[in-house]
Amino acid sequence: MVDVSAKPATERVAVARGRVVMAPATLARIQEGAMGKGDVLGVARIAGIMAAKRTSELIPLCHPLMLARVAVDLTPAPPDAVEIEATVKVAGQTGVEMEALTAVTVAALTVYDMCKAVDRGMRIEAVRLVRKSGGKSGTYEAE
After folding, report:
1. Is 99 annotated as ligand-binding?
2. Rounded to whole angstroms, how far apart are CA atoms 44 and 122?
3. Could you read off the pLDDT tens digit of each residue along the chain, which spans 143 residues?
4. Which of 47, 49, 83, 106 sits at a 20 to 30 Å CA gap from 57?
5. Does 1 appear as a known binding residue?
6. Which residues are noted in the entry as substrate-binding (predicted)?
7. CA contacts within 13 A on the Cβ side of 32
8. Cα separation of 34 and 56, whole Å?
9. Strands 123-133, 81-92: pairing kind
10. pTM over the 0.90 mark
11. Separation between Cα atoms, residue 103 and residue 94, nearest integer Å
């Protein structure tokens, strides 16, 4: 890992987004609560939060961080998608971009897993960092 011991601890926030595109009928079933495996959006939210907390175990050389806040929001986007946004906050010596990206990715994979029996053609798309603040490199806003 990179030595961050000389860096000051600052408040750092990262926001990542992605989406799962599916058949309109699959989204309708999610919204109706009619998937056989249960509450898709609720389970995916918890999976994303848990993944953010364990990013250092999943991504080589990531620092283990004491996260101050993790929020994962999943929003149906008719006619055929679920939008996912993760916000991760820490007061520390290194950023939380990887934690936000991991949260979105795992939440998307959870949606896929819970719905694959009815729609194997789903696509996970556009996972990206949209905003970050704090640290030496300052603020980033995606276009």
Report:
1. yes
2. 15
3. 666 666 777 799 999 999 999 999 999 999 999 999 999 999 999 999 999 999 999 999 888 888 999 999 999 999 999 999 999 999 877 779 999 999 999 999 999 999 999 999 999 999 999 999 988 788 999 98
4. 83
5. no
6. 61-63, 98-99
7. 9
8. 35
9. unpaired
10. yes
11. 17
